[in-house]
Amino acid sequence: MRKITASLFISLDGVVEDPEWHLPYFNHEMGEAVGAHLAAADTLLLGRVTYDSFAGAWPDREAEGGEDAEFAKIIGDARKIVVSNQELQFSWRNSEHLKGDLIAAVAALKDEPGDSDIAMSGSVSIVRQLLAAGLLDELHLLLHPIAMCKGERLFAAGEPIPLKLLKSTTFATGVLHLVYTLDEAAPTGGYDEAKRHLEPRDRQR
């Protein structure tokens, strides 16, 4: 079964909307992390807004042959699956429209043959739905040391989603690269269990 991974820029208070606020924190460490995430995949799963943003930039950067042309070619060569309820027309190569029920279609994608990841960047509403359905294997959060105090947040009201930390890296800018997966063995318990950890060690024996 193929693995689906998602990467998001996020503020301390959980804001993920229009993350141009992340640009002052972008350095070579973040560039390597974002590049490695997308380069590990041969398929990109994107919402229409994210796709339009990518399609409006990366083909031109590839054609211009600048410093990021090699990375632009990697994205251009990848299979790009776009989630949208609207009819779509594509000019960027290797792009296709995912139609029908999102959860059923993504479950079928995971069952396709292949060893490469299916990567997501942005596309917050899709990330939420896949998390809730248990279909997202890794959530990469680039947590920035700033509270935006306004804007759409990653997690909306709903049922709790227990996560397990797989990896954490601190960048020189103070950004944390946190990699989570769904935690099927999340801890449980109440105050009686928690208060034991407030007692002196000799009383816990």
UniProtKB/TrEMBL annotation:
Residues 2-176 form the Bacterial bifunctional deaminase-reductase C-terminal domain. InterPro entries: DHFR-like_dom_sf, RibDG_C, Riboflavin_Biosynth_HTPR. Pfam families: RibD_C. Gene3D superfamilies: Dihydrofolate Reductase, subunit A. PANTHER family: 2,5-DIAMINO-6-RIBOSYLAMINO-4(3H)-PYRIMIDINONE 5'-PHOSPHATE REDUCTASE, DIHYDROFOLATE REDUCTASE FAMILY PROTEIN (AFU_ORTHOLOGUE AFUA_8G06820). This is Dihydrofolate reductase family protein.
